Amino acid sequence: MASENIFEINTEDFEKIKNQEGPYILDFYSDECAPCESLAPKYQEMADLFGDKVKFYKIFRQQNRDLAKKMGVSSSPTVVFYNNGKETGSRLIGGIKKKDLLTNISTLLPGDEFKNRISKKKPQVKEADVLILGGGPAGMSAGIYAAQAKLKTIMVDPELTGGQVKTTHLISNYAGTGKAVNGYELMDLMLTQTKEAGAEVIAAVDITELKVSENGGLHTLILDNGDMTIHAKSLIITTGAQPRLTGAPGEKENRGLGISYCATCDGKYYDGKEIIVIGGGNSAVEESLFLTRFATKIHMIQNLETLTANKTAIDHLLKNEKISVSYNTVVKEFTRLEDGRMKLLVSNVKTNEESTLETDGVFVFIGMMPNVEVLPNSLKKDNWGYLVTNDDMETNLPGVYAAGDVRSKKIRQAATAVGDGAIAGILVEKYVEQFDARVKGNH
Fold this sequence. Notes:
Helix content: 25-40%
CATH architecture of the largest domain: 3-Layer(bba) Sandwich
Largest sheet: 7 strands, mixed
CATH topology of the largest domain: FAD/NAD(P)-binding domain
Shape: globular
Strand content: 25-35%
C-alpha cells in the first residue's frame, strides 16, 4: 500500500513543482525492474519517517522518457534530491541502500531534526533456529524445507528476493514448468511457497554486520545500523554471485549512466538504438538475443577467438542480422560523451591495435563473482572466492552451510541451486536438534 506521503507525478506535474521551496526527492522507476522493487519499501520507510518535512515523488520512467532523457536519467531506479528547486547531493542509481538514502536526506534537514527522527526508531531483536542469508532459488528452497520441518526460519535478502533468476527473461530448462518460463514469475511463485511454508522473509535491508560463531554458538546478524538484530542457531549462506566488472577505467563511474548489467531491467530503454554487448559466454549470447527485441544493431566484443556459449545459442546468434561480433578484442576505457552516448577505447589482443567505438549503450556479461563481502575470513574459500563445502553443504564452521552460486562447484544453474538449498534445508534440522540438546545439557 502506497504511503500517503508519496506522490505519483508525470512530466507536466514536475514542471509545476520543480521550483518549489523546501526539500523534495524524485524517484524515477520502471516496471519489471528488480532494483526498483528493492528500493520501494525503503523509499516508503523514508517517506513515513520524513514525509512531513520532505516531499517524496515518483515518476514512471517509461511514460516520461523525454523528461528522463532531458535530466540525463538512463537507469532505473534513479533518485534525485532537491532543495529550493535546485538539485543537491549525489544521485542514487541501481541497487540503492537505505544508508545512502539517509545520508542524502540528512543534508536536506537541520542536524537536530534529522537525529530526532532517527532516534524514534525502536530496534527489533529476533531469534531463529535457521537464518538464511540470501533470497534466491537456493535460499528459498532451503527456507521451504527448514520451515516445513517446524524450524523457526528467517530468510534475509539485502536486495529483492529472487536473485539473478528474477532478472532472467526466460528459463527454458527448469523442470516442471512445461515450457519456457519468465524468471520473474518463477521466483514470485517460489517466494509465495516459502512464505506459506512458514518462513519469515526480510528483504530490502542493509547488512551492518554478520557475526559468525566459529565454535557452534549463536550467529548474529545486525541490519540497518542496529534497527534489527537476529540471533540464530544455524546459518545457511545463499548470497549468490554478482556480475563481474571489466575493470576498465570509466566503468564504475558510468554504471547506470550508459553501462548496464541487466538486459531485462534496461533493455527497453534502447528501443531503436545501437548497443554494444561485452562478453561471449552463455549469458552474453542469450541476453544479446533478447536485446534484439529493442536495439536495431548489437555489436558484441569478445576477448577470445570464438564465442563460448552453447552451440544452439551461438547458431541462433550468428544467424541474426542485427548482431555482429569482434573477436580477440578487449575494452581499455569507457568515456561518456556530452550527448549521453558512450565511447569505448578497444584493443586487439593479438595485434595491440587500438580503435574507438561509439554507441548508445553498453551491456556487460562477462561472468559472475561470489557475494562474500560480509562473510568472515574464517570461512574456507577456493581460489576464486567461492565457499568450500562438502556434499552435505556444510562449510568448515559448525552449523554454517552454503548453497547455490556462492558455493564452489562446477555447475551453476537455478535447478542446481534449488538442489543445494534442499540439502541444506533438510540436514540443518539435525544440527538444530543437536544444538538444543547441547544447550539443554549445559543447564
